[in-house]
Design goal:
heterodimer; A: 525 residues; alpha+beta; 19 strands; elongated; B: 325 residues; four-stranded antiparallel sheet; 6 strands
């Protein structure tokens, strides 16, 4: 044995490789390891779309609410306030208030105001709309992440994809029930609105249609608990959930779970103002477009807290409190893609690919050793180190191993061997031409080098294209393929060269080319 | 062990005409299949829902079909999946509602057909399917372009064109077979096509590299035709080609046989692609070098010129270092 820099590098790489791949093999909790993809460990993968247009809508409603409150607070008479088709319109009754209202409207950012003869139209600038849409997606990501964190699932992933899509991966989901709960939690708009009941007309709510309600600036909402019950409320809410600071589960006098919420100071102020003015009228607590209760206001309510009661189980109340706490979704989300894999299928897939892997590897080893003799053994050693290194590199980067990724590793085994086949064939050629062993080995590596680099780099190009345009599992395949190509160039070119160099005196002494390279040379006299 | 101990180069280019005619025919048939028969697109591209259900004992598909007849899943495609206990349901409908779950509806609809477990539910909305389609086409074109540029840069433009023709040949034939054998075209098949690109070019490069070397090292290039050079180069690399293709083929065969139903499409496409990838390097890419008018004498002169330039540069540098200039 003679040490040379190549074999030293190989040994160092192998040791590092082993150290970094052990956590992945044992799946211990310590150290960086390869995470199994959802297709292997089971779990839920969702691609959610965000309806960003709705965010604009609800922004307009917020503006209308604020405007209404401003008018009431400052004794400015505003009529026919409505928020529709991305516009807020209202009439100013007294022209003397024009300066005041103009000053107020200027404080609302990103809007354009048109006014003629007391009729106002507020719309958003295109830039503001763009910004709002981006913010809606950001906010949805943040909100969903918050909700999932509080839900207590293991290692949830929430990430933006493209412009208005959100990728959610939940490896911890095991049962359909869990999945259902998680999906409900994520998608819940959790939009809390406090709305005034239109006491003047609410008697006629059952005869009214949407259009007529709209003509009074009202809208008809269903009751959450009694489906046949309808409520007529002012279209513009008194305040909404953006002013909510906390929500937690409590119990009512019948020991049923309820959700207690509290408002921030601005919200408490509005709430107090409204309740002070509306004693004897009803206040509807509306969650996601359904009325949960509509108690009569007995007195001014300061302090800014309220209660939602809705025949909840403790778990439901808990999830709802989480949703409210993490804030409403500015824009609703919808399902674009969903893949859920049960844990037993993942286990089956792992088993199947391991069998394929073991059989494939065994075949290759058998083949190589039978064909090349000791050179085949060296190639096999390189191949095994190759696999260890792939796993180590993937673990270092915290990459995910998917089912196609496993196929990628199996393929790499075949490709790693190709490098050694090319080199060994070159060595044989030189030996046949009568070169001495040392010369043949050096020459073989020299001749094969440019072929190997070109051949592998072009394959790498395909892998990179796969990575750039692939999604999910295909990306996983591209990663293993690319890592496999790079690692196999290292082990096949540098590693085996090092082993040959270390053994060269041994090979020269033995002189048995059949045993070493599987080749019979005609004796040259 | 040795497969080939050829003393003389095989006259492979002598068989090119009939073999190439065969290739052309298969390519045309494949194009016909792709454009007329088309593919059975998986939900990745077509959108829809797939539900994989495993029973605790073998299940009759007719019974299930009867059971679903009066439900919303009446039009569902039912197929055995890998074993008689396991089936998949293909539904065209998708739901954008985050809280509604197809698995639950399927469970309800299949109630009373035995003990089963829903193992997988995949839903791909129509918009995503479209996007995946464009991305797939982009990925394919981009890698072909990348490979073309790389090969043209490392070798010569004619090598690039010849390599790309061989690549297109392989991908088209593999796609044609996928269509012919009604293999579902999903993301894994697309991955296979891209891997075949990588494989096929790998193989072609090995031979091209050898051709370049043979030209460079031939003593009297003018006496050789390009066909001779190719014959010699292919013969010299033949045992490598066969060995590599055989090992990779066996590895993929094990994937095909034992790798499970989910990567069936992938391994099927790979099996075909690997064979054609190696074949096309010899019988498609190489002859195209001749047909594109690659001239040995000129190439040799070019290499000689390059070598002279290099020698001259080195001489100058040596002089410079010795302080002569």
């Amino acid at each position: 044995m003679k040490l040379n820099y190549r074999v030293v590098l190989l040994i160092i790489a192998t040791v590092i490789g082993l150290v970094f791949s052990i956590p992945s093999f044992t799946q211990s909790s310590e150290g960086k390891k390869i995470t199994l993809g959802l297709d292997l460990q089971g779990g839920l993968h969702m691609l959610l779309g965000v309806k960003t247009d709705e965010a604009v809508n609800s922004q307009m409603k917020s503006i209308a609410s604020a405007l209404k409150h401003y008018g009431e607070h400052n004794d400015i008479l505003l009529d026919a306030i409505s928020a529709q088709e991305n516009k807020v319109t209202f009439d100013l009754i007294d022209a003397d208030d024009a300066t005041a209202i103009d000053t107020y409207l200027k404080t609302i950012e990103g809007t354009v105001v048109h006014a003629s003869a007391g009729k106002y139209t507020i719309s958003m600038t295109p830039e503001a709309i763009e910004k709002l849409k981006v913010r809606a997606v950001d906010q949805a990501i943040e909100t969903i992440r918050n909700r999932l964190d509080q839900f207590g699932l293991a290692e949830p992933t929430v990430a933006r994809q493209g412009i208005d899509k959100i990728l959610v991966e939940l490896p911890g989901i095991k049962t359909p029930q869990e999945e259902q709960r998680a999906r409900e939690l994520i998608s819940r708009a959790a939009k809390l609105e406090l709305m005034a009941v239109d006491e003047d007309r609410s008697m006629r709510v059952n005869e009214m249609d949407e259009a007529e309600a709209a003509s009074y600036g009202d809208k008809i909402l269903d009751d959450a608990l009694q489906p046949q019950l309808k409520h007529l409320v002012n279209e513009i809410p008194i305040l909404d959930g953006t002013m909510l600071t906390d929500a937690h589960v409590g119990y009512d006098q019948n020991n049923r779970p309820v959700i207690n919420f509290s408002l921030n100071s601005a919200g408490a102020q509005i709430f107090g103002d409204f309740t002070g003015k509306s004693v004897g009228k009803r206040l509807a607590i509306v969650l996601d477009g359904k009325v949960y209760s509509a108690p009569v206001i007995n007195e001014r309510i300061g302090g800014g807290s309220g209660q939602i009661s809705g025949n909840y189980t403790v778990a439901e109340a808990n999830d709802l409190a989480i949703a409210l706490r993490s804030g409403a979704l500015l824009a609703p989300i919808y399902m674009m893609e969903k893949r859920s894999v049960g844990p037993s299928l993942g286990a089956d897939s792992i088993k199947a690919s391991l069998i394929a892997f073991a059989t494939g590897a065994a075949l290759v080893v058998l083949f190589m050793v039978a064909y090349y003799g000791y050179a085949g053994v060296i190639a096999t050693t390189a191949m095994i180190i190759n696999i260890v290194l792939i796993i180590a590199v993937m673990a270092m980067f915290g990459a995910t191993l998917t089912l196609p990724g496993m196929a990628g590793i199996v393929l790499t085994v075949g490709m790693a061997v190709d490098g050694n086949v090319i080199i060994n064939e070159r060595i044989r050629e030189l030996l046949r031409e009568g070169a001495k062993v040392r010369k043949a080995i050096e020459g073989g590596y020299d001749n094969a080098f440019s072929t190997l680099v070109d051949a592998n780099l072009t394959t790498l190009i395909a892998a990179v294209a796969l990575y750039m345009y692939g999604t999910g599992p295909i990306k996983g395949f591209a990663v293993t393929l690319a890592v496999g190509i790079l690692v196999s160039m290292f082990t096949a070119i540098l590693g085996t060269h090092g082993i040959f160099s270390a053994l060269i005196e041994h090979i020269e002494k033995s002189g048995k080319m059949n045993r070493w390279f599987g080749i019979r040379l005609e004796r040259k006299e | 062990m040795e497969f080939f101990r050829a003393k003389k180069a095989f006259n492979l280019m002598g068989w090119v005409k009939p073999i190439f005619t065969f290739s052309l025919l298969v390519t045309i048939i494949s194009f016909y299949l792709i454009f007329n028969k088309g593919f059975i697109y998986g939900i990745d591209f077509a959108g829809g829902t797939v539900v994989q259900v495993k029973y605790d004992k073998p299940v009759q598909i007719d019974v299930l079909r009867e059971k679903l007849k009066n439900t919303q899943f009446a039009s569902a495609g039912i197929q055995e999946f890998g074993s008689p206990e396991e089936i998949i349901l293909r539904l065209q409908n998708t739901t954008a509602d985050v809280t509604k779950d197809t698995a639950q509806q399927v469970t309800a609809a299949l109630q009373g057909t035995g003990n089963f477990e829903i193992r997988r539910v995949d839903m791909v909305g129509p918009k995503v399917g479209k996007e995946l389609q464009t991305q797939g086409i982009l990925a394919l074109s981009l890698s072909v372009l990348g490979i073309l540029i790389y090969v043209a840069f490392r070798f010569e433009w004619r090598y690039g064109i010849a390599a790309i023709i061989a690549l297109v040949h392989d991908v088209v034939i593999t796609a044609g077979m996928v269509s012919l054998f009604n293999v579902e075209f999903d993301l894994t098949v697309l991955a296979a096509l891209l891997t075949i690109l990588g494989f096929s070019i790998n193989d072609t490069i090995v031979i091209f590299d050898r051709i370049r070397e043979t030209i460079r090292e031939s003593k009297d290039a003018a006496r050789y035709s390009m066909a001779d050079i190719i014959n010699e180069s292919v013969t010299n690399t033949l045992s490598r080609t066969i060995l590599t293709v055989a090992t990779v083929f066996f590895v993929i065969l094990t994937l095909f046989l034992f790798g499970g139903e989910i990567i069936h499409g992938f391994s099927f496409a790979m099996l075909i692609g690997v064979i054609f990838g190696a074949y096309s390097s010899i019988f498609v890419a190489s002859p195209f070098l001749i047909w594109l008018g690659y001239d040995v004498a000129k190439a040799k002169a070019g290499y000689a010129e390059k070598a002279r330039n290099r020698a001259e540069k080195e001489r100058l540098r040596a002089q410079f270092e010795q302080g002569i200039v």
